[in-house]
Design a protein that fits this description.
This protein is globular. It is α+β, with helices and mostly antiparallel strands. Strands 1-6-5-4-2-3 form a six-stranded mixed sheet. It has four helices and six strands, in the order βαββαβαββα. About 35% of the residues are buried. Helices cover about 30% and strands about 25% of the residues.
Length: about 140
């Protein structure tokens, strides 16, 4: 389940989420891959938390943008999230959360149908999907 829509077709709260993911992308520390990703996570309380990817010369120690935002929010007391916007750029294609990030998002999503927006930095198109579609057989205890 996914739908590609024009940036302008979304409501103001969603557009703000998208803009913050684009801005967070600019803060990425991606000196090895030059693959910058930014994200904005909307909590149940309505607050937005941003994150960017942070690379390390020991690549396995790098942190994805999505997990940066989740850890930031959880460390400030938030434990439930409604929506996430992910902004990256790969030859004009949408960039989606990796498998590890999908599982971490599943841990804190208010619903398995948490809305996931993949945003192009140009603010032209947004792909709307949900966590259940991206992680159909999520691991849960």
């Amino acid at each position: 389940m996914f739908e590609v829509k024009k940036f302008v077709e979304f409501d103001e709260q969603e557009k703000q989420l998208f803009r913050e993911s684009i801005q967070a992308r600019e803060e990425a520390y991606a000196i090895y891959s030059n693959f910058k990703v930014g994200t904005a996570l909307l909590s149940k309380s309505g607050k937005i938390y941003t994150g960017c990817n942070v690379e390390n010369s020991s690549f396995s120690l790098s942190t994805c943008a999505e997990r940066t935002a989740v850890v930031k929010a959880v460390s400030e007391g938030e434990k439930e999230f409604n929506k996430i916007a992910v902004c990256g750029l790969k030859e004009g294609q949408f960039v989606s959360p990796c498998g590890s990030c999908r599982q971490v998002l599943n841990e804190f999503a208010q619903s398995s149908h948490m809305e996931v927006y993949l945003v192009k930095p140009s603010q032209t198109e947004v792909l709307k999907t949900n966590l259940k579609y991206l992680l159909p057989l999520a691991f849960n205890l």
